[in-house]
Every structure is written in C-alpha cells, then in structure tokens.
Amino acid sequence: MKTEILALLVSGAAGALLCALLLPLLKRMGAKQYILGYVEEHKDKSGTPTMGGLSFVFAAALCALPFGLYADRHTAVAVTFGVACTAVGFLDDFLKFRFHRNLGLRAWQKIVFQVVLAVIAGIYCFVNELTVLRIPFAGVSVDIGAWMIPLTVFAYLATVNCVNLTDGLDGLAGSVSFWYFALFAALLFFTGTGRALARLSLLLCGALAGYLLFNTYRASVFMGDTGSLGLGGFAASVAALSGNLLYILIFGIMFVCSGISVIAQVIYYKRTKKRLFLMAPLHHHFQKKGYSESKIVYAYSLVTVAAGLVCLAFV
C-alpha cells in the first residue's frame, strides 16, 4: 500500500508541476479555445488556453517509469494506446489554434484514426488470450473468444467519444475520470488481477488531481481533445486489458449518459423536429436549466462514485 500512496503523491505533484509549466507555454503559442457560438454560457471562456491534457498524460506516462510499470507488457500497451489517442487529440487541437477555428480534424479523420487503434487493441487482446470477460454483479467470467475483437473495437470507439462529449464544463471530464480510474484501481486490487494496471490507474488519478487544480471552475486551462481523447484511450485500455470491459458501463455511467443523450437528441429531432433536451450533451441541458457548473460536476462525480461502490459491493 505504501507504493500505491507514493504513486498517487508523485503523480499528483508531477501533474500539477507540468500543468504550471505548460500554461505559460500554451499562452505564448496562442493555443486558445474557440467557443462554439451556440454555447452562450461559455462565450466569456473564449481564449482560454487549451491542450492542458498534455500535463496529466505525460505525468502518468513518465511516473510509470520509476514505478516499474513498463515491465508489465499489458500496462506498457495500455500507456501506448492512451498516448496514441492523445496524439490524435493533439493534432485536432493544433489544427484548431493554428487556423483560428473551432474545426480541427474532420470527423471522419478522427474516426479513421480511432478505428485503426481500436482494431489493433482488439487483435492484441485476442492474440494474447485476453478474451475472458468479468460480468458485473454476477461474480462470473465468460470467455468470448474471437468476439473480443469486435467488442473491444466498439468499447474503444464508444469510450473515447463519450469521454470527449463529457468534456464540456470546467472540471467535468477530469473529475469523472478521476473517480473512474479510482474505481478501476479498487476493482483490480480487490480481485487480485492486473496489479500494474491498478497502479497505472492510480497514477492517472494523481495526475488528474494535479491538473484539476488548474481546471476546476473557473478554469485556467482546458484539456482539449488532447486530454479527452487521451483519457478515453486510457479508460478503454485499462478495462480491455484487465478483462473488465463491461465495467465501463458502471464506472463510466456518466460518460454513457453523455453519449446516449446526444444520440437520443439527434434521433428525436430527426423524427419530430423537436428537441428532447434543451441542449446535448446532457450536462448542457442541466446548465440551460440553471444549474451551476460546479453543482453539475459534483452531481456527475457523486453518481459515478455511488454506481461504482454499489458495483464493487458485489465483487
């Protein structure tokens, strides 16, 4: 347990330090967020530095070295996929501020990158016989064989994009992700599997805690797609490589809600020409209802923790 506590403290300090050093650099580079015109509540946030996600991704990846996590092949692969997704997000953010617009990579370009990474992840799981799925609440495991490939592809695509959709308020994606990785660390420790992946999850928790010093309301820096896609990549990797893909639905319940709210909004509008929510994703609906950003972030975190603890009670 001493090692786990030390991992949290070291990665937390590294996350805060890297973010503090990165912030003035981002300002000098002109890496500013361009706010969409229809998000009226966020107009005064335009110009806030973005790509702050580099701080917690690099903090976790660098801190994994002294703790010997790269000696575990699956953990090294998880970091590789997380960093690869971060690179896609970085390219998207770079194009945005380079050309002074809210559009970076085209949607199809991001999907192509994500599909390639997801397929590689699925094949890796199958080739390395990581095909056993633990079923939440049931206490049983099922070997799904080659079906692990399409399931992993779907899980990667869904997780990466749902985390990205959740990144819409100060501290929201960072706080929910903090609890997501904390719950996964607890799950892996309780089940006695994937100890290195559990420590990676703790490193991500610490790095996010350091970053959130600069990102909670009122944010000094945004994570950008650099951070949200990276978090999605790490979230999917930890789940897939530990045999716990289905736990994403529980520990990432608010990510799921973000994705479902957007899909439901689009389908409902196409059929009725009316809106199901005042605005999607769901957190914007609550904001339109008059709830403060801090209250929404707290509620999202509370639901995540509550759902996770109930699930852990059946482990």
Task: Characterize the structure shown.
The protein has 315 residues and is mainly alpha-helical. It has helices at residues 2-29, 53-63, 73-98, 107-127, 148-166, 172-191, 195-215, 224-241, 248-251, 253-272, 282-288, 293-312; strands at 132-135, 140-143. A two-stranded antiparallel sheet has the order 1-2. The mean pLDDT is 94.
Write the layout of secondary structure elements.
Elements: H1 2-29, H2 53-63, H3 73-98, H4 107-127, E1 132-135, E2 140-143, H5 148-166, H6 172-191, H7 195-215, H8 224-241, H9 248-251, H10 253-272, H11 282-288, H12 293-312
Antiparallel strand pairs: 1-2
Please give a quick description of this structure.
With 315 residues, this protein is mostly helical.
Global mean pLDDT: 94
Gyration radius, to the nearest Å?
Answer: 19 Å
Strand coverage percent: under 5%
Number of strands: 2
Features:
single chain, 315 residues, mainly alpha, two-stranded antiparallel sheet, 2 strands, 68% helix
